[in-house]
């Protein structure tokens, strides 16, 4: 895979289609593309609820739908396709003994095993960056039979991790440190691994690791928007596209793991907030304002109670209680529209994630590493399944 060429193509395409993915239907009543592509708008509005749920989750299908109306969009698929990495079975003494798996939730265990199954050892010691209780570090210490250090800011997780390491009888040390502040780690010659270190935590590993002379990186990034100010500060200065914090957040907005009850709560929260937003607009605020988080208890109240609290908090004229039923219904209608319009935005989610990952990967390549980008597991196990492997040894 030519990473630079892929990055260039994706950068151009995402820039060209920005009017489709940048507007947030939750905030904008009618994104500009509705008038530019009225047939796309009409098709979305006519979709049954089950298709809407499916398309908001399945980016490839959503992209295919958009491409029926905007044919150039189809070309994007080739640039965002990332191959699955070939997995090696973990050594029998690890899987049979099961010494490392104590206290790991099932899905986390599968993610860690998948990650460990596609990376190979290199470098002198292993550094598990932002390692939590060090489950990945412990597995690697066992599987590779070499010393591992897990760096973690939370002292309780470090204490817990040390106990688990001791029980497993492995050479696994914990460094209690702030990854964003330390200058002591990572060190020259180390093999740095990071599973789901959020935003600026994985970017700091790359920045500091390159300076320090890390010999290998294996990084599965997540929460790209964390630590981003108003705009994402790209490593590369050759990119035409600029991402806002919200754009970077779009890359990780899947709700694949939501249980039906959570999904119902989420829908209700959206409908009520949109009901409030409509009331606020009628009361004179034309532009969307950011919502401060809504306390959970308010969502357990009636719609009228929710509105009363919101109006007081936001300094908006009180809604007459008699209008509650009609206003709530308007909120649900708006929720149905927002969900349908969001299919277009969500069609570009994976492309944005790949753009963000390529920014990291191309930077590592420009610093002399041989770099590979692959998927370490199925999306069903975790949607944050992209892995950047870079080596200079
Ligand atoms: C999403 S968890 C991932 C943990 C582990 N890698 C895993 O996959 O199980 C992110 C971890 O980063 C740690 N963390 C957050 N900020 C940190 C910082 N500034 N320095 C070091 N660790 C940090 C958190 O305490 C948490 O354990």
Task: Give a brief description.
By secondary structure, the chain is of the alpha/beta class. The protein contains 18 helices and seven strands. The protein has two domains: 25-57 and 258-345, no CATH class; 92-251 and 349-391, Vaccinia Virus protein VP39 (Rossmann fold, 3-Layer(aba) Sandwich), CATH 3.40.50.
CATH overall fold name of the largest domain = Rossmann fold
> How many strands, which pairing sense, and closed or not: the largest β-sheet?
7 strands, mixed
Strand order of the largest sheet: 3-2-1-4-5-7-6
**CATH domain class name of the largest domain:** Alpha Beta
Give your account of this protein's structure:
The longest helix is centred in the C-terminal third of the chain and has 23 residues. The chain is built from 18 helices and seven strands. Helix 9 crosses helix 10. Helix content is 50%, strand content 10%. Strand 1, helix 10 and strand 2 form a beta-alpha-beta unit. The chain is of the alpha/beta class. 41% of the residues are buried. A seven-stranded mixed beta sheet has the order 3-2-1-4-5-7-6, sandwiched between helices. It has two domains: 121 residues, no CATH class; 203 residues, Vaccinia Virus protein VP39 (Rossmann fold, 3-Layer(aba) Sandwich), CATH 3.40.50. The chain binds S-adenosylmethionine.
């Amino acid at each position: 895979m030519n990473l630079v060429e892929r990055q260039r193509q994706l950068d151009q395409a995402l820039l060209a289609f920005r009017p489709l993915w940048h507007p947030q239907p939750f905030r904008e009543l009618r994104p500009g593309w509705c008038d530019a592509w009225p047939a796309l708008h009409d098709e979305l509005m006519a979709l049954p609820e089950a298709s809407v749920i499916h398309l908001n989750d399945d980016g490839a299908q959503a992209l295919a739908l958009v491409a029926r109306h905007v044919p150039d969009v189809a070309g994007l698929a080739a640039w965002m396709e990332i191959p699955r990495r070939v997995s090696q079975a973990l050594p029998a003494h690890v899987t049979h003994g099961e010494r490392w798996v104590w206290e790991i939730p099932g899905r986390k265990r599968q993610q860690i095993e998948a990650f460990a199954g596609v990376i190979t050892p290199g470098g002198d010691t292993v550094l598990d960056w932002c390692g939590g209780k060090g489950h990945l570090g412990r597995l690697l210490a066992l599987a590779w039979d070499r010393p591992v250090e897990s760096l973690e800011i939370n002292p309780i997780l470090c204490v817990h991790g040390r106990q688990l390491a001791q029980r497993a009888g492995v050479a696994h040390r914990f460094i209690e440190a702030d990854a964003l502040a330390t200058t002591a780690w990572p060190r020259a010659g180390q093999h740095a691994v990071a599973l789901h270190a959020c935003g600026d935590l994985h970017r700091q590993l790359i920045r500091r690791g390159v300076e320090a002379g890390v010999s290998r990186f294996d990084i599965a990034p997540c929460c790209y928007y964390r630590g981003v100010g108003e705009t994402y500060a790209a490593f590369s200065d050759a990119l035409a596209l600029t991402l806002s914090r919200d754009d970077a957040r779009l890359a990780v907005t899947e709700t694949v793991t939501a249980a039906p009850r959570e999904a119902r709560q989420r829908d209700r929260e959206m409908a009520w907030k949109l009901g409030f937003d409509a009331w606020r607009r009628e009361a004179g605020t034309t532009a969307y304002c950011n919502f401060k988080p809504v306390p959970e208890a308010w969502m357990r109240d009636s719609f009228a109670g929710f509105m009363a609290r919101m109006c007081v908090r936001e300094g908006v004229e009180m809604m007459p209680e008699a209008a509650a039923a009609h206003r709530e219904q308007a909120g649900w209608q708006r929720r149905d529209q927002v969900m349908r319009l969001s299919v277009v935005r969500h069609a570009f989610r994976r492309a944005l994630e790949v753009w963000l990952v390529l920014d990291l990967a191309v930077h590592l390549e420009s610093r002399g590493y041989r770099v590979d980008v692959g998927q370490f597991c199925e999306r069903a196990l975790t949607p944050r399944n992209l892995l950047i492997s870079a080596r200079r040894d």
